[in-house]
């Protein structure tokens, strides 16, 4: 059963209204969200995603509902990794905490636009060049190895944006101080850009790098562009509130990158197996499908994603708690 066109149109229109409302709230009422406020918003967006999966189940059947739910869980897991880099960017450019909501919202909009472009390109490539799944799988396995390396630090991700930042500073005059959420200000009678433009450029380049990782991953779950895009929308919508909800907890999630590495490695292997199952490469098995290659079921993908994230989070919190108890014992 296909997803009805009317359902796609109505869903995208309503999601656009939700995003617009979220943006207006940030614009009209810039503030530092409390833990209670952030928790309620995160719960709202999670409930919204689960409700959407329920509607998909009713109008398009369990297959599409399962694909969306697994894709959303995958993208939500990978999006949490964005938060670590966002923390570094906010610290690097000393963004006032009151303005961080607006920066995050703009970052989310940039991410949605970039991912939308990548999704359209990905669907076109897949339709015309099916063996690309081999490349996607190999890329994700390589990314997983990079994530799992002990020396892998998120500072490397921020360092890559150095060229873009230097280019902006060279092309346009940038002031030393923020002027609220403004992009333009006046310093000594001269019109200048505020550091906010540098922050937005850095966030944009970061989003681009994360899109390169995440879009091939979700194509292992579904090649339906509507499900891929909506899974990304729901994964990103609550990211701003999750940033403030987790707060200092992000520093304690030291093993999260191992969980993400497991997910990426599993998805990479799944993509390779899918490519073998649908094989058309002439020099592999004479260009015929490799029959013994298994098709990984959706339920197994969802289980691996949830277990990997819960395991990495639990191990991080246990290790952090043990260190704190040792510090208290030494202090006493």
Q: What average pLDDT do the residues reach?
A: 82
Give the SSE string: HHHHHHHEEHHHHHH
Q: CA-to-CA gap between the ends?
A: 65 Å
The total domain count is 1
Specify the helix fraction band: over 70%
Q: Given the structure, what is the number of helices?
A: 13
What is the total tally of β strands? 2
Structural class: mainly alpha
How much of the sequence lies in strands comes to under 5%
Low-confidence stretches: none
Cα-atom radius of gyration = 21 Å
- Give the spatial strand order of the biggest sheet: 1-2
For the biggest sheet, the summary is: 2 strands, antiparallel
Shape: globular
Word description of this protein:
The structure is a single chain. With 332 residues, the chain is an all-alpha fold. The protein has one domain. The chain is 74% helix and 2% strand. The protein is built from 13 helices and two strands. The chain has helices at residues 5-28, 35-60, 62-92, 100-128, 132-148, 155-159, 162-171, 195-218, 225-237, 239-246, 249-252, 256-277, 298-331, and strands at 184-187, 190-193. The chain has a two-stranded antiparallel sheet. β1 and β2 (190-193) form a beta hairpin. It is globular, with a radius of gyration of 21 Å.
Describe this protein with a few key phrases.
single chain, 332 residues, mainly alpha, two-stranded antiparallel sheet, 13 helices, globular
Short description:
The protein has 13 helices and two strands.
SSE topology sketch:
Layout: H1 5-28, H2 35-60, H3 62-92, H4 100-128, H5 132-148, H6 155-159, H7 162-171, E1 184-187, E2 190-193, H8 195-218, H9 225-237, H10 239-246, H11 249-252, H12 256-277, H13 298-331
Helix pairs in contact: 1-4, 1-9, 2-3, 2-10, 3-8, 3-9, 3-12, 3-13, 4-8, 4-9, 5-12, 7-8, 12-13
